[in-house]
């Protein structure tokens, strides 16, 4: 325990320190412009002239003004405490004290990241299930049918070079025109991103049994279905979970991408709204929320993996 | 009740207050309409949505609508709530830009995704090339969603709407004196914004025309209500915003500016303004937005029916 | 083929190979894995195959089990072609590694072929119990493979091959991965098992003492192309204590095997 | 409708053909190995064409492949410019920087166990930050040019590359390491002569993942601000103009570039890690 | 430690172990891998270690090579502690698997220790050539390991261990993965190699004939805890044709080894 906690803490502290230091030069120009508007004397000439000077020079020559970079309204790089404050305000703060918060209304407020994380989570899980199921089915097909293996596999690789993210708005419009609305279009994009790792992992996993194990099945004249159920599927479980962990993270990205164009809630919509109104702290808070969600989902997969493997008698 | 799906051009904000108010205040219901409002967003093209059958009527800018018409999506303007144009180019005054000619050799932020047409027409009328920074050309950036390029001085000028981005610049602490605005209207290159468009073939159906008439009537009622009650309208918009990211202050100020653009509008398209828009779009030099004057791109049939009552 | 089948009917050998050839087409050209292999095995025999790596021992066993098909020649098992015999579940196959499925208990592993062959549940249980006792693993049924030593795992895999009472036991270097002392033990046990069940057994090994100790017939093979160089009928009695390995008869047979091997051996 | 029916028949026919081609030992023939995926791809395109025509799908929704091809051919100079902007400047420079940084970090992480235990968990958390969220921030920091695209790519490829390389550096058997110890070899000889060669297959694995990510990252970042050139810009701007044929032509550029880079990496892998069992078939 | 070192100075054994104990702390509690192991090896001896799996053969070799550190007891190599000897490059270690680096040619593999030890390039080439001839692999230097048979790979790994002329050759079941015939060949070659180079050799094996055939001294070990149960000085002459394995002296030694093994062996 201590062997991991201490190094992680050290790294986190180092990152925080770096972050605080970086926030000063990152925000210095805007800080100086504001100070100038407020009538302060600023080193470095006019705003356009300052544009050509190095940020560090501006920091060093305006030492009293520089620390304001930690408390700006619209920072280029918000200081960690600003992000944390926003994260708190848009979760617990909003739900407990907000006008539309959970405590007041019994429903999660649409101004809170908890609500939006929920929206995203729903579509992610649906998309993940679709993607994982499609991936497993495709892998079974590929393993059992050489024609499918040879024809589909190269195209599956190429399909991943298509910037689906760029296509997301189009896909949503097209699906919309076919009457598919709400959670499903997002889930489909999410499924598209998650099926590939599952296919790759499952094909590997279903092919994991060695010739000897397959020959055994053959000497018992087991059918293809029996070999699949009693040998290939159990043998593929570790591979399956390894790819599910990648897939669920990809799923989340897919959902967020699907939420960008349609401003109907979810962390993606939230990030964009933050960006749209220049609310840097809001983007960062949504971003961290997404990362936390991803970490939770991956952890969940790991937990399921451990449970499954234990149930299968594999030593812990 | 008749179902109507309305696709907006952009995210839920006071720019579309009239429709939300009509929905919220039951004006649509009074007209026996069941209206669904689909918010837009970046990279959602209302023209594409309606072409695919995802909406009955869309809020769109006329340049994009006419361009789509040439692309084979026969859109027809049935109503024009916005009489004025809110588009402008906002520049830092300290860059020394005072007149359109000063734009040469500068970096400008422009919205694309079908919103670039007015800008391109304007530049071609000024004889300024848009493919690079030089003596008689400008460098064009595909502006993102916000006003950061200006604040960070990555661009000398950016596109803003009087009712939205311009306010955002001010909200960021910039004083109006620090800025120079080129309103498209004042430059004589204004194009009609935020009209209501439907597919031409649907207008053959009298029932559809009637439905649209009721829709436009209720929507205009909503706009009037919104103009009269900007604070409440802003709150209604806020309540309909599923992202929960809007602030009441910003929406109220947006409502105030939008009111100016709507003015005394009845929703009826002013044919003169239409002709002006078409002229601007066709004047685009070697690469005009539309190549031929469109036929039947607007109708008063719906507004006539709406105003008849 | 019909001819071979009718012949085997009269002489009733369990396995009858006549001029079996098998050529693998590989990227580097054809490999003659078996050349003109003829062999007849009668019921209840214990036949060992010995020979250097690549001489076709495994390939021959796989042909018998219908896991490969000879390029030419006649091969019958119980008077049928091997694939029919496979469908009739005539084989219990034991590989070099135990090859137990790690996600099944020992009992579960032994039950697997029974499940596939559709034995009723009660019958499955009974058979699993019986073969577990047979290989001296009673009480270990609920353990997982990794909880057992290598020798125990190998015995479990033999139990698995015995569970469905196949006529023929095919063993491809079943004890190759085990150390000498464990191997001695298992050899002893295998011999007594064979004495009790009287199953026809084909056994591949690299070890001369093992081959001589276990077999009623020793087939010496030689590679490139894989062929039979000697077939030795063992003069040893059926009853064989471990000490027999230091007897002169034993050493004589071992010597003949070694000579046969050395003759066929070309390059390391 | 007949066209749609034709599409269905075509699909069944092609499937049967591929089934026939792959039966028995025919699939070992080189020409067959090439033909089968090609037949599949061509079939998909033909079915697409027939369905679009048969159902009269508007071009504003989905253009036919023939039209996409025509647009692609007619706009080669324009698309070449986009390719240079997005792939050569944005994606490849970002890929190079990200990969180099990851390799150096991997060696450090491998050397200092504390770093491994501290950095990898934090790193995996950072890697979970979705790029659609970080891209607007990076555009704000690094400007509208290719530099911000490269920055997005660096962020995207760094962690997968790091994880793979670290795994690779540790993928030596105890025996291989013990051997080095019996030679009295110190850290550097062991790194250069054992761990790095052993890590190469993993490094290439990571490179393959990273290269596809790089293409996608560079394109996506252009949605959040770009000059008036680039694949992402083209997709977005053309989509707004309902020029869907141009959108797909730009996507084609991206897919071609991605596949080409992937192919090149696979070739280099075959050449450099010729000794690895996976390359020896 | 100082005491042990001074002792070995006088008697000059190459390897001197006195009451060596090694306990591994594992998750399931401590495992005594070596208990009270005392052994003295003089220059030029060929010592075989035999015993069932887990008796500590490998562990003892690793202690000698300074890959493990004894928990207690005194162990010196050439009068130094093993780690000093390791730094002085006193060991050539050959593992069960050849363990050649697949990305280097055979010559490149053999050159590897020479590069690390900083031999000049010309010297490297000369040595590689010499040892390749020594193990009968001249002409194979430019092949990659996977292009060679298992036996050839194993010879290459022996060549690698010989290339830098270490005083002591440590071999941990070097032929365990090979078939009996190849093994016989390599045993013969190893013996002649040893006769020519007179290197002190510690050799781990599972095979009784192998141990008896090769060694001047056979150490029989027994597991749980790992300890020495018998040390047999071989009465066989240094000159040993393969046939010696059928001689009565050989069989007598083999019998003694087998008895020693059986005594120490508890459960399969
Ligand atoms: N599937 C295959 N494809 C091509 N060649 C094969 C195949 N299986 C075996 N061979 C070749 O056929 C020959 C005989 O192989 P086989 O496995 O029967 O030998 P073996 O006597 O069992 O050897 P070992 O003692 O190493 O197990 C070898 O040269 C081998 O390389
Ligand atoms: N690194 C280790 N950690 C814990 N226990 C170990 C370790 N290495 C060896 N052991 C244990 O020490 C004992 C002796 O192991 P060792 O490898 O020396 O046996 P061996 O005689 O070489 O056996 P084999 O013939 O199987 O190679 C065994 O019980 C083994 O499980
Ligand atoms: C990516 C993107 N950026 C800007 C616009 C332009 N736009 C259309 S309506 C509107 C409302 C004013 O706030 C704005 C800004 C767009 N459509 N898409
Ligand atoms: Mg074999
Ligand atoms: Mg060992």
Automatic annotation (TrEMBL), chain A:
Specify where it is mainly localized.
membrane
Q: Secretion signal: which residues?
A: none
Tell me the Gene Ontology biological-process terms attached to this UniProt entry.
transmembrane transport
Ranges for domain ABC transmembrane type-1: 113-305
Q: How does it sit in the membrane?
A: Multi-pass membrane protein
Q: Which SUPFAM superfamilies match?
A: MetI-like
Q: Name one GO cellular component term.
A: plasma membrane
- Supply the Pfam families for this chain: BPD_transp_1
List the subcellular locations.
Cell membrane
Keywords in alphabetical order: Cell membrane, Membrane, Transmembrane, Transmembrane helix, Transport
Is Electron transport included in the keywords of this UniProt record? no
Record field: transmembrane:
113-140, 152-175, 187-206, 239-262, 282-304
The UniProt entry's sequence similarity note says:
Belongs to the binding-protein-dependent transport system permease family.
Q: What is this protein called?
A: ABC transporter permease
- Name the species this protein comes from: Rubellimicrobium rubrum
UniProtKB/TrEMBL annotation, chains C, E:
Among its keywords, does the record have ATP-binding?
A: yes
Q: Which UniProt keywords apply?
A: ATP-binding, Nucleotide-binding, Transport
- Molecular function GO labels: ATP binding; ATP hydrolysis activity
Judging by the UniProt lineage, the source's domain of life is Bacteria
InterPro entries noted in UniProt: AAA+_ATPase, ABC_transporter-like_ATP-bd, ABC_transporter-like_CS, ABC_transporter_ATP-bind, P-loop_NTPase
Q: Which CDD domains match?
A: ABC_NrtD_SsuB_transporters
Q: Which residues cross the membrane?
A: none
**Keyword ATP-binding assigned:** yes
Q: Organism source for this protein?
A: Rubellimicrobium rubrum
Q: Which residues form the ABC transporter domain?
A: 17-244
Organismal lineage: Bacteria, Pseudomonadati, Pseudomonadota, Alphaproteobacteria, Rhodobacterales
UniProt protein name: ABC transporter ATP-binding protein
From TrEMBL, chain D:
Keyword check for Transmembrane, yes or no.
Answer: yes
Task: List where the protein spans the membrane.
Answer: 32-52, 87-109, 121-144, 150-169, 202-226, 246-268
Its GO CC terms are: plasma membrane
Give the superkingdom in one word.
Answer: Bacteria
Q: Where is the ABC transmembrane type-1 domain?
A: 84-269
Q: What is its main location?
A: membrane
Q: Which PROSITE patterns does the entry mention?
A: ABC_TM1
| UniProt KW keywords | Cell membrane, Membrane, Transmembrane, Transmembrane helix, Transport
Q: Which PANTHER family match?
A: ABC TRANSPORTER PERMEASE PROTEIN MJ0413-RELATED (PTHR30151:SF0), ALKANE SULFONATE ABC TRANSPORTER-RELATED, MEMBRANE SUBUNIT (PTHR30151)
The family assignment reads: Belongs to the binding-protein-dependent transport system permease family.
Name recorded for this polypeptide: ABC transporter permease
Task: Record the organism.
Answer: Rubellimicrobium rubrum
**Taxonomic lineage:** Bacteria, Pseudomonadati, Pseudomonadota, Alphaproteobacteria, Rhodobacterales
């Amino acid at each position: 325990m201590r062997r991991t906690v201490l190094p992680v803490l050290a790294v986190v502290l180092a990152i925080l320190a770096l972050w605080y230091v970086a926030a000063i030069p990152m925000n210095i120009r805007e800080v100086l412009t504001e100070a100038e508007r407020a009538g302060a004397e600023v080193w470095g000439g006019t705003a356009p002239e300052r544009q050509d000077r190095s940020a560090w020079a501006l920091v060093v020559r305006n030492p009293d003004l520089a620390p304001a970079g930690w408390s700006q309204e619209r920072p280029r790089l918000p200081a960690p405490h600003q992000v944390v404050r926003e994260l708190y305000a848009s979760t617990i703060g909003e739900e407990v004290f907000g006008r539309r918060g959970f405590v007041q209304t019994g429903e999660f407020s649409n101004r809170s990241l908890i609500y939006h994380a929920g929206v995203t989570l729903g579509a992610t899980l649906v998309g993940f299930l679709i993607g994982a199921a499609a991936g497993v089915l495709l892998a079974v097909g590929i393993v059992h049918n050489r024609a499918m293996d040879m024809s589909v596999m190269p195209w599956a690789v190429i399909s991943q070079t298509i910037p689906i993210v760029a296509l997301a708005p189009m896909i949503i419009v097209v699906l919309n025109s076919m009457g598919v609305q709400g959670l499903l279009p997002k889930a489909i994009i999410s499924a598209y991103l998650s099926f590939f790792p599952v296919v790759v992992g499952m094909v590997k996993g279903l092919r994991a049994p060695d010739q000897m194990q397959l020959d055994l099945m053959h000497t018992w004249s087991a059918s293809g279905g029996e070999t699949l159920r009693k040998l290939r599927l159990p043998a593929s479980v570790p591979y399956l979970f390894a790819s599910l962990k990648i897939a669920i993270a990809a799923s989340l990205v897919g959902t967020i991408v699907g939420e960008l164009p349609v401003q109907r809630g979810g962390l993606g919509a939230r990030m964009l709204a933050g960006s749209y109104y220049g609310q840097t702290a809001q983007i960062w808070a949504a971003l961290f929320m997404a990362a936390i969600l991803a970490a939770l989902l991956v952890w969940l997969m790991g937990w399921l993996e451990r449970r499954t493997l234990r149930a299968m008698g594999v030593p812990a | 009740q008749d179902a109507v799906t309305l696709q907006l051009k952009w995210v839920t904000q006071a720019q579309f207050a009239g429709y939300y108010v009509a929905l919220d205040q039951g004006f649509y219901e009074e007209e026996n309409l069941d209206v669904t409002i689909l918010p837009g967003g970046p990279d959602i093209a209302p023209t594409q949505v309606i072409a695919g059958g995802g909406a009955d009527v869309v809020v769109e800018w006329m340049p994009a609508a006419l361009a789509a018409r040439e692309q084979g999506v026969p859109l027809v303007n049935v109503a024009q709530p916005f009489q004025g144009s809110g588009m402008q180019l906002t520049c830092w005054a300290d860059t020394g830009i005072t007149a359109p000619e000063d734009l040469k050799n500068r970096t400008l932020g422009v919205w694309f995704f079908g919103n670039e047409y007015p800008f391109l027409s304007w530049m071609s009328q000024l004889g300024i090339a848009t493919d690079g920074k030089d003596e008689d050309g400008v460098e064009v950036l595909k502006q993102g969603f916000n006003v950061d390029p200006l604040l960070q001085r990555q661009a000398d000028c950016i596109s803003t709407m009087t009712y939205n981005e311009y306010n955002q610049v001010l909200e960021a602490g910039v004083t109006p004196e620090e800025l120079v605005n080129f309103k498209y209207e004042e430059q004589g290159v204004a194009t009609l914004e935020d009209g209501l468009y439907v597919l031409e073939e649907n207008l053959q159906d009298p029932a559809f025309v009637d439905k649209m008439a009721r829709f436009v009537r209720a929507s205009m009622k909503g706009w009037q209500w919104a103009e009269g009650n900007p604070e409440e309208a802003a709150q209604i918009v806020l309540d309909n915003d599923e992202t929960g990211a809007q602030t009441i202050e910003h929406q109220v100020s947006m409502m105030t500016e939008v009111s100016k653009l709507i003015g005394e509008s009845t929703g009826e398209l002013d044919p003169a303004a239409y002709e002006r828009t078409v002229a601007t779009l066709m004047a685009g030099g070697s690469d005009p937005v539309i190549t031929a004057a469109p036929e039947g791109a607007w109708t008063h049939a719906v507004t006539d029916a709406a105003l008849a009552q | 083929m019909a001819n071979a089948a009718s012949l085997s009917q009269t002489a009733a050998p369990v396995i009858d190979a006549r001029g079996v050839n098998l050529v693998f087409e590989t990227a580097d050209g054809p490999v003659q894995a078996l050349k003109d292999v003829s062999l007849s095995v009668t019921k209840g025999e214990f036949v060992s195959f010995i020979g250097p790596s690549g001489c076709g021992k495994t390939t021959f066993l796989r042909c018998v089990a219908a896991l490969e098909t000879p390029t030419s020649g006649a091969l019958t098992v119980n008077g049928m072609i091997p694939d029919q015999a496979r469908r009739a579940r005539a084989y219990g196959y034991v590989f070099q590694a135990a090859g137990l499925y790690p996600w099944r208990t020992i009992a579960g592993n032994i039950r697997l072929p029974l499940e596939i062959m559709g034995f009723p549940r009660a019958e499955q249980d009974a058979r699993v119990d019986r073969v577990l006792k047979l290989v001296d693993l009673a009480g270990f049924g609920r353990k997982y493979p990794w909880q057992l030593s290598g020798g125990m795992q190998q015995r479990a895999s033999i139990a698995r091959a015995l569970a469905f009472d196949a006529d023929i036991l095919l063993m491809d270097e079943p004890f190759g991965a085990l150390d000498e002392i464990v191997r001695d033990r298992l050899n002893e046990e295998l011999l007594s098992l064979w004495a009790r069940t009287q199953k026809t057994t084909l056994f591949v090994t690299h070890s001369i003492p093992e081959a001589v100790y276990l077999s009623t017939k020793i087939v010496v093979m030689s590679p490139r192309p894989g062929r039979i160089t000697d077939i030795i009928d063992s003069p040893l009695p059926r009853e064989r204590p471990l000490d027999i390995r230091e007897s002169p008869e034993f050493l004589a047979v071992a010597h003949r095997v070694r000579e046969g091997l050395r003759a066929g051996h070309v390059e390391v | 409708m007949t066209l749609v029916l034709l599409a269905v028949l075509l699909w069944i026919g092609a499937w049967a053909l591929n089934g026939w081609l792959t039966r028995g030992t025919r699939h070992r023939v080189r020409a067959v190995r090439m033909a089968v995926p090609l037949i599949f791809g061509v079939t998909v395109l033909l079915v697409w064409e027939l369905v679009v025509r048969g159902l009269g799908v508007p071009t504003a929704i989905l253009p036919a492949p023939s039209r996409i091809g025509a647009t692609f051919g007619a706009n080669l100079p324009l698309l070449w410019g986009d390719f240079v902007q997005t792939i050569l400047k944005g994606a490849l420079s970002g890929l190079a920087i990200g990969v180099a940084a990851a390799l150096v970090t991997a060696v450090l992480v491998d050397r200092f166990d504390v770093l491994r235990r501290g950095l990898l968990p934090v790193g995996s958390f950072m890697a979970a930050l979705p790029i659609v969220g970080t891209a607007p921030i990076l555009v704000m920091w690094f400007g509208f040019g290719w530099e911000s695209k490269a920055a997005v790519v660096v962020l995207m490829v760094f962690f997968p590359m790091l994880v793979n390389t670290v795994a690779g550096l540790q993928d030596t058997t105890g025996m291989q390491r013990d051997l080095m110890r019996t030679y009295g070899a110190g850290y550097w000889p062991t790194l250069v002569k054992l761990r790095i060669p052993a890590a190469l297959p993993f490094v290439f694995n990571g490179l393959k993942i990273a290269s596809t990510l790089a293409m996608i990252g560079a394109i996506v970042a252009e949605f959040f601000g770009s000059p008036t050139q680039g694949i992402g810009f083209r997709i977005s701007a053309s989509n707004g103009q309902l020029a869907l044929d141009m959108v797909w032509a730009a996507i084609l550029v991206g897919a071609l570039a991605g596949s080409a880079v992937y192919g090149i990496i696979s070739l280099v892998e075959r050449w450099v890690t010729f000794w690895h069992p996976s390359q020896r078939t």
